[in-house]
Amino acid sequence: MSAGAADLKTASRSQTASIELQRQQEEADALHQKNQQAQEDAAEEKTIQQVYGEVQNDPTIPPEKKHDELIARLAGKIKPAALAALNEQIEEHDTLVRNASDDNLAESLKKNTEVDNALSAVLAAPETDRPAQYGVARQSLIRQGIAKPEDIPETYDPATVAVHQAAAMGATNSATAEISRREQANKDADERRRAREADQLTQPSPPGKGGNVASSSVREERTNCDGFYKKGRPRMHVDLVEVIGRRWAGESFPAIARRMHLGYGTVVRAYHTATVALQAVQKPKAATLRAVKPGVQASGIDSEASYR
Prior knowledge:
There is one protein chain. This protein is mainly α. The protein is built from twelve helices and no strands. It has two domains: 44-194, no CATH class; 209-306, no CATH class. The longest helix has 54 residues, at 3-56.
């Protein structure tokens, strides 16, 4: 082999070794960065868990304010990207809670309350008794079907227990707040509905056009006579034409009440309403009332169509 060929071979080996060293260095740097990132993520996760537990266990913070308080306390302690991701996760969870059915919400509240109580009892026990207490709590939650065996580690770890306890408390607070919000919303809706009904019932019905006498319910008669609305049963519409027709045909008030499936007092008040409305009109015969035109409304009396 010539000297030139030997030098070329040596240079090739040297270049290959240099490339290998560079590759190994790059792999080492990548592994170092990966480990460093894992350590930073673990530190951020620990910070989040710690602050989360502090917020959830702080009784001075209302349930509806815990989300904002958590984000405020974590600001500056974790990376902005991690804070934004956490905020998005919490908002997604809140959306799921708001969209949950009443049954699912109640079931979630029940399960998370059980987990919270069980793990809180573990953390409240003396340090030496916590492993045994944790084993008992774990078996109880599994037996009740609240948690699966793979979801709860067999070995007691204080940090893990604290995280799960804080998470269960947070879920309990979220469900409780949503249930309270729904109850208040239903209460407000009922109050608005009752106010509308009361407002409508306190306004007397005006006479209809064309000389029609406007009085289609006993409740309206009570309002018009007394000048204000009396509390009582819901509005009941009565066919005044049928009541007065049967009465003038000779039927008694109890018989009319039975035939029309009304109360005795309702029939008497209906008859009074009809007679007051017709006091200026000539009293027709029973046969005339029975021959009322089909177009006449059952809830009113048309003087032109029936009594001309």
